[in-house]
Amino acid sequence: MTTTKYSLNRRHILTGAVAAGVMMPWVRKAAAADKIRMACWSPKLAEQANIFVSEAKGFFSENGVEMEFLPGQGSGDALRNVIAGNADIAFCGPEAIYLAADKGSELKAVYDIYPVNVFNVFALKSKQIITPQDLKGKKVGVISMASGTRYNLATILALNGMSERDVELVALGLNAAPAIIEGKVDAMASTDSILYGMQAAGLGTVDVIWARDYLNTSTDLFALEAKNYEPKKDLITRFLRGYKKGLEYTIKNPEEAVEITSKVAVDGKDPVRVAASMKLRLLCSQNANTRKNGLGWIDVPPLQEGVKIYKDAGFIKNDVDMSKIAINELIAKL
Prior knowledge:
Structural class: alpha/beta
Strand order of the largest sheet: 2-1-3-10-4
CATH architecture of the largest domain: 3-Layer(aba) Sandwich
Helix content: 40-55%
Largest sheet: 5 strands, mixed
Number of domains: 2
């Protein structure tokens, strides 16, 4: 029985009790929600609008869930919080899963948040970097040496007969625009939303190499420790149900979602930029597989191909079987 039906039954019973002049003590107080701690790769950002919509519209609470948002600094940070017991579920990229599994962590990925790869490498038009081969011998900025920008750059290079040895990596953090404009790097490994933000701030026209044109693997998934999957399956299912409803509501009500998000996101001051970031993430939340099988469906083969690339590049030493990690068991229950 879902929480919503339970609440309706309680209202019916309460109405009957009041009509009969009886106040039942067990209907005086709503049942406490179960807390779930979600470790994210970032602080609260506009691109995560549907999470804030789920909170504001009560989609988590109607499923008996109280969601605690734990900010982080990268996918690895989010997954480490789960492994350390500080969180129940991680909002993280596949690179974090590969690296943790390589070191012996047993994990389950249960929902594909963004099944479309949003990473890219871009350069100012004046640099004339149009193809991956044009990157050879160039200085390429990444957010950090442990970020998805680095690993997706490595994927692009590997699938074009190169490696990190063919470029010079420069860690620039999130505020990379000055280094790009001043010519300290020739190109920047980035995401669609980061690139949009730079262009909105006046970066200028660029040429873009999209990672999805070479390996269209997931950008982010929800993952947890395997040992907690069965004990927390019901809680995780209810959390994902609330998350999915927020996504569906955001798709249908973008203006309201922007209004909600602008109040909580650290980058929410400009509604136009909030709307743009949100739109980018709504687009990559859906693909042919999700339209056929439901939102959150995980496509395993590209993830497995990513394992091979990471091993060939030396990022991991062991084979990782993503068919045992990535599961779609809960999708039909949402």
